[in-house]
Amino acid sequence: MPPEGSFMYKFLTNRSIHVWITLTTLFSLALYTLLVDFQRKSPYAHLLPSSSTFTSHPVDYMARYVEVYKLHTAHLSAETAERRRKAVEDAQKRSRYRRAHGIESTTGVMGLGVEGEGEGEGEGRNGEGEVGDGEGEVVEEKRMRRPVKKWFGVW
């Protein structure tokens, strides 16, 4: 360890300098990874300017890169819209098939249905989160809470 008061001692013991170096390295590696991934997976990679253009004309290079990125984004949006359209058409076809063949359609989230509909003749909700037994007295309903899934034992 260098003697106290020297530049090297301050450099080695200064936390903010180490945070700056670490974050700069991580962000630069993340940016590099995103750029290389874009260049390899984009269907418009052949339209990207050569890397030697960056040193001679950086503004033109960035403008061209942004144009190609916009094309790429529009392409991804079109693909996503097509996939969603196919999924909606498929759901409509299934619905028409169920109606045509007299199959009971499922209700609720993800077709799971709602349990408890029609259970008991005189019982029902009175709108306040309590269940009435049909005879005028109100019985509080005990709700069982689902256990919360914790991530890393913290949240």
Give keywords.
155 residues, three-stranded antiparallel beta sheet, mainly alpha
Structure description:
54% of the residues lie in helices and 5% in strands. The chain is mostly helical and 155 residues long. A hairpin with a 4-residue loop joins strand 1 and strand 2. A three-stranded antiparallel sheet has the order 1-2-3, with no helix packed on it. The two termini are 41 Å apart. The chain is built from four helices and three strands.
Structure summary:
The chain has helices at 7-13, 15-41, 52-56, 58-101, and strands at residues 124-125, 130-132, 138-140. The protein is mostly helical and 155 residues long. The longest helix is centred in the middle third of the chain and has 44 residues, at 58-101.
